[in-house]
Amino acid sequence: MRFANKHVLITGGASPLALALARRLVQRGASISLLDRQRQPLSEAADELRPLVRKEAQQIEIVTADVAVQSDVQQAIGDLTRRSGPCDVLITAADALQPGYFQALDEQAFRRLMDINYFGTLYAIQAVLPAMTARRAGALVAVSSVAAMTGLFGYSAYAPTKFAVRGLMESLRMELKPYNIATSLIFMPALTREVAEAPPEAVPLETARLAAALPALPVDQIARTVVRGVQKGRFMITAPWQSRVLLRLGGLGHPLLQRFFDRKVAQAQREQRIQELNKQL
């Protein structure tokens, strides 16, 4: 796929990943529409992108909407397509995080993350898909996580939402082929970004230790991998290379990964016990 003269719409448009993707796509000749909840970060993102525009026809548009509210998404995307034309490429990057021990998380945490991460993806796809199928052209790119490959300690509210996004995109991949609509699923590096963005007191020690043991990638490097993967028409796009290995091994590699995680969790729990004993002395 070539991005020149395409209208690319990105939800979660004020996030670091969305902005890194938008920068690369603008440089390839795309018009960019960013959708997010807060106006100020969107305006700042647009101000950063406009100097990168190379052609008069390229547009940078923004709109505020809550991706968890279907009517908001439909109205916002309708507004963007009226301004910049039909959406050629949809990237669903809206994302919410809440690490914590399962028994410490209330029901609202599970519902909120599912509303934003899964239904936010679903509503955006529903809003652009009729026009794509009518034109028999387009691309859907959903941002999931390595947490959609395997459950992670402290992510009982987050990982299921990413498994749900994976299931949705794997189903759509087959269903949309006759309409010439490409689909891509992004497996973002797990834990490192989530732990960095969460308040330290909200992150279980076991989760923090797992994050420290996993590779961290600059967001620009991830964006480069994503753009290259979409250009080549890949369905599953991963970064770093360890994630690609895990994906290719599938179920065969899962026991090895679980053992690695179990060791790190056990080490963290021993550390906690030692800390508690020291406090008692």
The gist of it:
The protein is of the alpha/beta class. Helices cover 53% and strands 14% of the residues.
Descriptive report:
- This protein has one domain (7-280): Rossmann fold (3-Layer(aba) Sandwich).
- Helix content is 53%, strand content 14%.
- The chain is built from ten helices and seven strands.
- Strands 3-2-1-4-5-6-7 form a seven-stranded parallel sheet, with helices on both faces.
- Helix 2 (39-49) links the parallel strand 2 and strand 3.
- Helix 1 packs across helix 8 (219-231), helix 3 (70-84) packs parallel to helix 4 (107-135) and helix 7 (205-213) packs across helix 10 (254-280).
- It is elongated.
- The termini are far apart.
Features:
281 residues, alpha/beta, 14% strand, Rossmann fold, 7 strands, 10 helices, 7-stranded parallel β-sheet
| Estimated helix fraction | 40-55%
CATH top-level class: Alpha Beta
| Full CATH superfamily name | NAD(P)-binding Rossmann-like Domain
Query: What name does the CATH topology carry?
Result: Rossmann fold
The main β sheet shows up as: 7 strands, parallel
CATH architecture: 3-Layer(aba) Sandwich
Number of helical stretches of at least 4 residues? 10
Beta-strand residue fraction: 5-15%
Q: Determine the structural class based on helices, strands and strand pairing.
A: alpha/beta
* General shape: elongated
Give the distance, in angstroms, between the N- and C-terminal Cα atoms. Answer: 64 Å
Strand order in the sheet with the most strands: 3-2-1-4-5-6-7
Q: Mean pLDDT, nearest integer?
A: 87
Oligomer: single chain
**Spans with pLDDT under 50 lasting ≥5 residues?**
none
Number of strands: 7
